[in-house]
Amino acid sequence: MIMQWTDVLGAEGVSTKDIENMGNEIENARMGFMEKIKNGEIGFTNLLNVDLGNYDEIKKYMEEFDYILIIGMGGSILGTEAIHEGINGLYYNEHGFPKVYFLDNSDPEKTCRVLNLIDLEKTLIFVVSKSGNTLETLANFSIIKNILEKKVKNYEKNIIAITNGGYLKKLAEKGGYILFNIPENVSGRYSVFSDVGLAPLSCLGINIKELISGAKIMDKLCKKEDVFENPALMSATIHYLMYKKRKNISVIMPYAERLYKFGMWYRQLWAESLGKDGIGQTPLVSLGAKDQHSLLQLYMDGPKDKIVTFIRVNTFSEDIKTEYGEGNLNMHNLSEIINSEQLATEMSLTNHKVPNVKIILEELNETTLGMLLYMYEMQTAFSGELFGVNSFDQPAVEEEKKLTWRLLEEGNYGNKRISK
Amino acid sequence: MIMQWTDVLGAEGVSTKDIENMGNEIENARMGFMEKIKNGEIGFTNLLNVDLGNYDEIKKYMEEFDYILIIGMGGSILGTEAIHEGINGLYYNEHGFPKVYFLDNSDPEKTCRVLNLIDLEKTLIFVVSKSGNTLETLANFSIIKNILEKKVKNYEKNIIAITNGGYLKKLAEKGGYILFNIPENVSGRYSVFSDVGLAPLSCLGINIKELISGAKIMDKLCKKEDVFENPALMSATIHYLMYKKRKNISVIMPYAERLYKFGMWYRQLWAESLGKDGIGQTPLVSLGAKDQHSLLQLYMDGPKDKIVTFIRVNTFSEDIKTEYGEGNLNMHNLSEIINSEQLATEMSLTNHKVPNVKIILEELNETTLGMLLYMYEMQTAFSGELFGVNSFDQPAVEEEKKLTWRLLEEGNYGNKRISK
């Protein structure tokens, strides 16, 4: 359960000297963000101090149900999914209990299919929206509510609403649902360690205490003043310097399938936090070793517009021996193969002058996953200071949301045939 | 089943004049690729003329089995997965028959979990590798074979090998497996309409004939000389011009979850085909409307380094009415919501001067999916000519593959602790 941090630096990447040359800029970034915590503007770091006892109650409450349904978009759901899959692994619904479904889109086929797979009477429903007014969340929830009203007596006991206000809060108060609050100073994409993540995750067998203990270990490291001792500050600085050298793409490449959804969580965090005012670095998730057969050619030999972060897991929870019959290549564990592939890719990228960084997890469990998620929250917060943007708002999407509501009012779904 | 093509052009994007100004360059690209077909160098377009009768036999053969296992990497498996999920939809294994698993990594936990979920005796196994020497494919297959040898009599009847040579071909010939050939002049990422895709897909209830008929409709369109009548040539030209204007990222954004795996297939096609010699455009898959809550902020207000392609589906196979209780926003179908969101996002990106293109499918079915995949194969082939790269090889990854084999021989898995 040790997290190791190493980096490959070089003339084409970031050198130790480049970092030292930044002088006060790094310390100012760190202090700038710490000030926002101190004055209460930003609250996600305080989530680690909350009493976790309540989650035992939720877990117990869950025992009456066979299914979990989580309704939410973006930061209301991506972190939960990342931790669920990161710990419970692949194909969970094909063998695990309780089964869980994530309604995170306005795709009608998805909603219809999920409704065919669950028994709503036996389903505990988490409906999550910070604003309480998220279009897709309200739409999906209203569909579910319509069915519950017709079919299930006292259905309000099936619903847990997690919100800070808006229409969802009104609905919850009127309907008598269990209601949890999201603190005003915790924005959606930094909310995984609040009830948003912890309430449903405690029903999915996740050890919440270890998750938070991992985040706390990382919190200590991320308070260190020396950038070389502070992984989040170090990674923020490297990414900032690389962005200034025209690396406008940040690739995250975990060599463990369980970390793919973590990558999707990171994608939102990095894109929505830094992408504004003409600034921003586009996040891209690659899965090792799989995507070596898909994207590696481009990374190695395409434009030098990327910085790559490897995440490797030294010890897997299960392993199996292979035999592939040629020469002395017999009898390796699959874990040895995937890890050799990570190393070979790292060496090849370095040879091709593609800057890369590596995070090593001895094992992937609640503690290390808690460390990893929290590290990225801190890295993103520090990066906001370095890039000079507000990493806690998302003004441009608000504009698009208003337009959608207007088009819906007008009945304009864009289905008009366009000639040609 | 009409495919509509429209584009949003403008000063910040590509104007009709920009395209006209290219003069012979476009026609030369088209002719350059057509020449490669004529002289037999490139074979994927000929796949459409193959007799499809054999697939009825394979389908019948499948009736003896309860599970399908497909082992392969990159182009050997991504197209099959794209069409399977594109037609059979989400959560297929939780209600569909036969269940299907894709072994497409060297992740030990994934392989172990799949082995726990299937009964190998009742499993039809497709092992797919053009070269016949793909490390992960051989590794996974050897694990399966070891188990079969111990547990299943006459297990060779469970295996269909699809390859062009190498160690896999030797194994197949020695073991007496059913053996299909991949033509030498069809490279992996263009092989979905060969046995690579069609053999397993015919066992998964896909209407192969309609799939191919869609590809044929598109083939005719893609032979048109006038770029404004030829969707693949038009899209290739737009992407090329945008790349020259420093748009180094190509976002594909389907508004239908069933098309997500199509996006993953496209990712390999675009990245591996064009990413070489310092050239290339990085593909990124976003899922609408979901990723509006994740990446849209960056697309709208971040650096102007992207061209976005929307794919929308006008009519979904299932739909459901919602009610979300405020003002006159009551009672929309979810399909209306997702399609309004597509339109709003398109309008917002255009307002923010982000160039975007739109592909409209009236419905998503075998015919339109066949059209879509074939269109992208042709677009990529034309783009190779425009970008001036060989879009059918992947020299850089060959280097990394050799290095992995060497590290494995040396027993170097990179697990040594690196001091911080």
Automatic annotation (TrEMBL), chains A, B:
First-level EC class: isomerase
Origin: domain of life: Archaea
GO BP, sorted A to Z: gluconeogenesis; glucose 6-phosphate metabolic process; glycolytic process
Any GO MF annotation of the entry: glucose-6-phosphate isomerase activity
EC number(s) stated in the UniProt entry for this protein: 5.3.1.9
Location relative to the cell: Cytoplasm
GO CC entries: cytosol
UniProt key word Cytoplasm: yes
Active-site residue numbers: 272, 293, 401
Listed InterPro entries: G6P_Isomerase, GPI, Phosphoglucose_isomerase_CS, SIS_dom_sf, SIS_PGI_1, SIS_PGI_2
UniProt pathway: Carbohydrate degradation; glycolysis; D-glyceraldehyde 3-phosphate and glycerone phosphate from D-glucose: step 2/4; Carbohydrate biosynthesis; gluconeogenesis
Keywords: Cytoplasm, Gluconeogenesis, Glycolysis, Isomerase
Principal location listed in the UniProt entry: cytoplasm
Reaction(s) the record says it catalyses: alpha-D-glucose 6-phosphate = beta-D-fructose 6-phosphate
Task performed by this protein: Catalyzes the reversible isomerization of glucose-6-phosphate to fructose-6-phosphate.
HAMAP family: G6P_isomerase (MF_00473)
Family according to the record: Belongs to the GPI family.
Protein name stated in the entry: Probable glucose-6-phosphate isomerase
